[in-house]
């Protein structure tokens, strides 16, 4: 391979060596597949919400350490636990199927948890971090969904 003096172009058998760099610069960047990212996000949320639903059922059945057993709680607190035990599992199945109704059910479950945690902290014990994280997840879902809907195939 010839060595070029300063200011000279180095030539190879296929053309200029700089041509490869120019071709790399001119090639488009790999396209982000937002639809695939949305599917992975929904599946991850489905696993998390399935665990939350199963934890609620474990609480109902007395399998979790709790200062107050489920049957000794007030009727309102019991209703909230049963609501999330059912609703979280339904939302998880819908998310796993990546269906539209699954996203809606998940947003309803997420928002109802946030609202109850803010306005009824004695019934739904969640910290500020959990409420903030749920808000971030909701915004992230909406952004990824919007990007996936506007993704050019």
From TrEMBL:
Transmembrane segments: 34-57, 77-97, 104-123, 129-149
Record keywords, A-Z: Membrane, Transmembrane, Transmembrane helix
InterPro entries (UniProt xref): DUF6163
Superkingdom classification of source: Bacteria
Protein name, entry field: Transmembrane protein
Record organism: Camelimonas lactis
